[in-house]
Amino acid sequence: MGRLGNAKIHVERAVKQKKIFMIQGHYPVIRCLLRQRGWVEKKMVHHTGAALPHPQKELDNSVVGDGDTTEDEVEEEDEKVQPPQLGDFDNILECDDLDGIHALMVGLCLNLRNLPWFDEADADSFFPRCYRLGAEDDKKAFIGDKKPKKQERKPVMVSPEFVDEALSACQEHLSSIAHRDIDKDTDAPLCLSPEGWALFLQRYYQVVHEGVELRHLDAQVQRCEDTLQQLRAVVPQIDMEGDCNIWIVKPGAKSRGRGITCMNHLEEMLKVVDRDSVITKDGKWVVQKYIERPLLIFGTKFDLRQWFLVTDWNPLTVWFYRDSYIRFSTQPFSLKNLDNSVHLCNNSIQKHLENSCYRHPMLPADNMWSSQKFQAHLQETGAPNAWSTIIVPGMKAAVIHALQTSQDTVQGRKASFELYGADFVFGEDFHPWLIEINASPTMAPSTAVTAQLCAGVQADTLRVVIDWRLDHSCDTGAFELIYKQPAVEVPQYMGIRLLVEGSTIKKPGAMCHRRTGIHPALPHLLTRRGSGEGKDSGTPTHSPLPLPQAP
Predict the structure, then answer these.
(1) Are 84 and 29 in contact, with CB atoms under 8 Å apart?
(2) Could you tell me the pLDDT band of residue 529, with boundaries at 50, 70 and 90?
(3) With 324 labelled, which of 17, 81, 189, 270 sits at a CA distance of 20 to 30 A?
(4) Quick check: 531 and 505 in contact, CB under 8 A?
(5) Does the global pTM surpass 0.85?
(6) What is the dihedral of CA 331, 333, 336, 342, to 10 degrees?
(7) φ and ψ at residue 227, rounded to 5 degrees
(8) What dihedral angle (degrees, nearest 10) is formed by the CA atoms of 76, 77, 78, 80?
């Protein structure tokens, strides 16, 4: 039998076994592994006259929310998340569509506010506080409904009254956290008026950023220490706050670090947001507290890319990948320099920059480490248990909580899956802080580290979505099942139908006769106080009121 006959038999067998797949994009690892499993590829049909995208460009278009692309000029259509057609496996396994809820910072910012409804956890313990500057309520919450005004003359020093005002503001914040302000009159004046806040912010900027001397009294030192202890007990983010008040301003609908800036002055943030009225109107501008006290490696900032896999949304089923990689900045860390080259670790930004000559020589030239190398570094620096006892458990909890709060917004499909990439930054105490979650993370082998890890995660993804689906005892590679929610029965939709039930009011004639002895010959005295004479049947009635059916 010739090659054509063998190919025909192979295809017929694959059709019977439902092992037909289609791939849009350049995924050689997936193609190779599926063919080894006996799958047959059905080539995608492109309409006549339609330009066939370059495979590399297709790959880059699928990498929404990640920074490891190879062409800067690539812009996603309408800046929306376009999930890669990683495997339309003949409608057996499909790549799930999250509708951009994770890649857009707006979605993550909103969903995590509902975490108390899903779990006994506080989002502030793993997600830096975040506000939508395009939404008026969020904007007021961020700036406290107070804009600083320009000051004409710079003082030589700031008086001790500034410390008293700061202490009063902290105590007011503590009272709000403890809900002691519930019974407070809404018209009662705050510790600082809007004008007082504007002046307070001016003094703050002068002390922190301009080097103006702050005078204080000895008696205020102990009060400050006591207040800080009270704040530390109730504010989970106080250890990463710092004192420069730096925030990251992000256009929530963009990816790969585009449009992100670090700022420490309120008026500058508002100018940037107001400059783009379209994004502001849609509420897509997001401001997130910058972690001013990050864990550094040889004096350089880094973040970590962590993969996880969702194979079902009801019940929510989450797989966590054991291996990950960290990305370094090209410049030494400094809060005095707010340039993106110092503070953003996206490969799409850092790959265009030269490594600083002031960096430590032990840092890699390609600015990437594997998680194994990171663990070895922790071992060498005296924190051998930080990875297993703090970092990994914290990342798992953050991923689960983020998915719990997003579950109701996802149009999940059975026999589908989605691979995500979460970005974490660590505090000085190794505590992980979730920065963002990216749909369709890049699989491009941009460095030697990602060349090995990206191939591995693709192979292990197939082990989970194909092999484990048929045999729960099979090897799932580096994927670990960390969460499977109890199944929730979804009631069948019957349409909207309002039903009003009740009965007519009985004429109280017979009861009044027995109780008061009124003669039945005087019915007119009763009918004046009752209603429904001659209409009372005494039988219950109900009136169905059908409403228009939902589309």
Answers:
(1) no
(2) very low
(3) 81
(4) yes
(5) no
(6) 40
(7) -65, -40
(8) -60
Torsion of CA 442, 62, 27, 472, to 10 degrees: 70
In sequence order, which residues have a C-beta less than 8 Å from that of residue 487 and are 6 or more positions away?
314, 315
> Which one, of 424, 426, 430, 423, lies nearest residue 386 by Cα?
430
CA 437 to chain centroid, in Å, comes to 6
Question: What are the backbone dihedrals phi and psi of residue 494, each rounded to the nearest 5 degrees, phi first?
Answer: -110, 5
Helix (H, G, I), strand (E, B) or coil at 409: helix
Cα separation, 125 vs 398, in Å, equals 9
pLDDT score recorded for residue 292:
93
What is the rounded distance in angstroms from the CA atom of residue 205 to the CA atom of residue 532? 77
| Residue located via tokens 């004409």 | 152
CA 239, 399, 99, 254 dihedral sign is positive
Cis peptide before 84 (omega within 30 of 0): no
The amino acid at residue 465 is V
Per-residue buried b or exposed e for 531-551, using 16+ beta carbons within 10 Å of the residue's own CB: eeeeeeeeeeeeeeeeeeeee
Q: Is 304 helix (H, G, I), strand (E, B) or coil?
A: strand
Taking the C-alpha atoms of residue 396 and residue 322, their distance in angstroms, rounded to an integer, is 11
pLDDT confidence of 238, banded at 50, 70, 90? confident
Query: Encoding tokens for residue 339?
Result: 């340039």
- C-alpha to C-alpha distance for 548 and 55, rounded to whole angstroms: 49
Following CA atoms 68, 70, 73, 76 in sequence, which dihedral angle do they give, to the nearest 10 degrees? -50
Task: Give the up-direction half-sphere exposure of residue 70: CA atoms within 13 A in the CB hemisphere.
Answer: 13
Q: Which residue has the tokens 């990640």?
A: 66
Task: Answer with the residue of higher pLDDT: 343 or 284.
Answer: 343
The tokens describing 235, both together, are 């504010």
